[in-house]
Amino acid sequence: MHGDAAAALTLLNDAQLMERVGRGDKAAYSTLLSRHLKPLHAFAYRILGDGDEAEDAVQNAFVNIWVKAQSFDTDKAAFTTWAYRIVMNQCLDAKRKKRFDPMPEGYDAVDEGVDIEAEALSQATAHRVQQAIMALPERQRVALTLCHFEGHSQAQAAEILDVRVKALESLLSRARAALKKTLEPMRDEL
């Protein structure tokens, strides 16, 4: 695509791009992909805890976005809300299909310039916190991820989860209470 045309696409908002994607415009799709890939991948990673699975979930989500582009309705939801919901569903499907927990990335790497004992303790602490988050019920984990890691407002997170704000607040409250209870024995390490 010509540079001027690509630059012009970056000036369009998501709804305008989706209208073009619905007509089969691959350049508009590419613009949406480059605009939203990184935050959606980060969201998927926080839900799944695995980079490869997160990448697969986001790729599947973007295939769904391409396939369902004609059915996207700007009156029902913002593109980001719709996209986060699609990614969330892909992640939850992947979690249901998951049969084993992979070893954490870098578990066997040794760096001679680092205090190995301190680094191991730090990694172990981070791993225990991540395990505690991953042990939360799915909807609590997603609510916590959306509000605390992704920076969505409670209203946005409620829309993505398709619940009322009060229900989201309840999910967050239960998630925080469960994390506090689970992580209490290691409070001094945190």
Q: How many β strands by DSSP?
A: 0
Proportion in β-strands: under 5%
Number of domains: 2
Biggest sheet layout: none
Describe what you observe in this structure.
It is a single chain. The chain has helices at residues 3-10, 14-22, 26-48, 51-67, 79-97, 116-134, 138-149, 154-161, 165-183. It is mainly α. It folds into 2 domains: 1-100, RNA polymerase sigma factor, region 2, helix turn helix motif (Rna Polymerase Sigma Factor, Chain: A, Orthogonal Bundle), CATH 1.10.1740; 114-190, Winged helix-like DNA-binding domain superfamily/Winged helix DNA-binding domain (Arc Repressor Mutant, subunit A), CATH 1.10.10. The relative contact order is 0.09.
List keywords for this structure.
Arc Repressor Mutant, subunit A, 9 helices, globular, 2 domains, about 190 residues, Rna Polymerase Sigma Factor, Chain: A, single chain, mainly alpha
Q: Which SSEs are present, and which pair or pack?
A:
Layout lengths: L2 H8 L3 H9 L3 H23 L2 H17 L11 H19 L18 H19 L3 H12 L4 H8 L3 H19 L7
Helix pairs in contact: 2-3, 3-4, 3-5, 4-5, 5-8, 6-9, 7-8, 7-9, 8-9
Can you describe this structure in just a few lines?
The protein is an all-alpha fold and 190 residues long. Helices cover 71% and strands 0% of the residues.
